[in-house]
Amino acid sequence: MSKKVVHLVFGDFFKSTFEKCNHPKIVQGHIIRLNDDLRIGPIFQLNSSTGQSQREKWLQRTNGSYFKDYYTGFVVEDSLKIEQLKADDSVTDIYVWSARNALDGLYTTRLLNALEGTSFNIYMADFCDFKLKSAIGNLFDLTSLALVRTSDVPLLLKRFKIINEQAFKKANALWKHAIANKAVLRGINDDGKIQFLEASHFDNILLQHCTENYQKSVRVVVCTLVDIDYVINDGFLDWRLKVLVQLGRLHFEGQLKEKRDYSIKKAS
After folding, report:
1. Which helix or strand (DSSP H or E) is residue 125 part of?
2. What gap in Å lies between CA 239 and CA 221, rounded to an integer?
3. b/e per residue, 214-253, with b = 16+ CB within 10 A?
4. H helices within 10-143, ranges in order?
5. CA pair distance 161, 122, nearest whole angstrom
6. Nearest 5°: phi and psi at 202?
């Protein structure tokens, strides 16, 4: 049986960069992309069909009409991809591409929990103290793989090492802790532990960008994303604006559908 190498990436941005790389380890490997944003929405008992169904319903309810089916489809799709990977006897080596941020950290924790006890050689890289050079020569911390250029991929590959049993045990404990909690917002702290946050965690920042005059909600969302360094996606913040409207803290005009469909101002 021929050796099959799999590269697991999270989200759209890095996958497109990755696919353009002509390094032999990349060209000869098979790329699997996971997409479900585990920072938001319930993941209570996500390993079960009931937990997945609850997550799908929440995403349907809180996302705009255009995106709700798009995001909801990732819930079952990611679970199927993981199960198909576990059942693929031709796979020998798995490279998990993950930077030190909440999105990648949650994906990785879930993945290692699912792959514990398998016979795969699983490789990961520690980018905590690693810096990349920008196109103009400035050094920057690698906080997201979306910042990586295609020419950087071979350099990153050199940092991968096979993980040990301790890494599996840590991920297993973290994931079991995560799916036992009913929070709908979460992050990763500096120690790599999962933080459970109130759904209203970013509300005050959203309100700070609202004024006495109507302005497009997308403007408020973008300004908030900049303030919080993009640690959450825009769909979650859009949902929170609609909640603030329902609570009477904001007024709106237009239609409460997509971000560009309505404007908001502070309630007088």
Report:
1. strand 121-125
2. 10
3. eeebbebbebbbeeeeeebeebbbbbbbbbbbeeebbebe
4. 12-19, 24-27, 49-62, 68-86, 102-115
5. 8
6. -105, 5
Kindly report the three-state secondary structure assignment for every residue of 14-36.
HHHHHHCCCCHHHHCCEEEEECC
pTM of full prediction above 0.85: yes
Residues in the chain: 268
Rounded CA-CA distance 104/97 in Å is: 8
Can you give the pLDDT at residue 19? Answer: 81
Spacing of C-alpha 136 from chain mean position: 28
Task: Transcribe 237-263 into DSSP letters.
Answer: HHHHHHHHHHTTSEEEEE-SSSGGGEE
Asked if 63 contacts 235 with a C-beta cutoff of 8 angstroms, the reply is: yes
Q: Is 215 strand, coil or helix?
A: strand
Is pLDDT larger for residue 3 or for residue 156? 156
Q: What angle do CA 87, 89, 94 make, to 5 degrees?
A: 85
What integer is the mean pLDDT of 36-59?
93
Residue pair 94/122 in contact (Cβ under 8 Å)? The answer is: yes
Confidence of residue 192 (pLDDT cuts 50, 70, 90): confident
Whole-number CA gyration radius for the chain? 20
**3-class DSSP state for residue 57?**
helix
> What band does 75 get if pLDDT is binned at 50, 70 and 90?
very high
Two tokens, residue 223: 């300004």
Write the CA distances from 24 to 19, 147, 225, integer angstroms: 12, 22, 37
pLDDT tens profile 145-172:
888 888 888 989 999 999 999 999 999 9
CB 267 within 8 A of CB 251: yes
Give 257's pLDDT tier (boundaries 50, 70, 90). Answer: confident
